[in-house]
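Quick illustration, no need to memorize.
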Amino acid sequence: MTTIIAILSQKGGGGKSTLARTLAVELTKQNQKTLLVDLDIQQKTSQEWSERRKRKNIKPLISCQSLPYFEEKLIKTNYDYLIIDCPARISKESLIIAKHASLIIQPVRPSLDDLNPAIREFHALVRAGISKKKLALVINCVNSNAEEKNTREYLTEAGYFVFSIALLDKVSYREAQNQGLSISEVKYPRLSNQVQLLVKSILSKI
């Protein structure tokens, strides 16, 4: 049975594609047959990243498809995992994806301009019948322990699960992705280990 992990965001720039690509890389390294599905056809961020990776022959190569909408026939493929990089703006299609997904993750930056839309989106999914148990948040681009703590408390008070590992705001993450790498493949062990721990936590929640 194919496991679907949907990465969505109410706003662009929250780290949606970053997280989707990282999961695809780490699962592929674990010999899990994984397809990264880029549904953001205007940006094609994940698709273009996978092409950079292929041109540089970075192993493992990542299977990636850019599609204008979610095709339910994908569920019946022989992939172990589908990682869905959803469009930047939430739509009715997001609800369809959420119904099929085992886990729905929103990466979110630590500002109220990002936090409140993320919370409202999860509220909307719950009202539409999506189980809270499938919803989770990843804090992204934090610059201090205090900022992470305050963000975590704010999200937890809203009633949603927040992964214990946050992603830092690092130039090395951006540089890695520019080269076709994922943020779990940065050259600094402390940073790559932190990302790999986050991936492990995500997979253990499914």
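Residues 73 and 110 are 36 Å apart (CA to CA).
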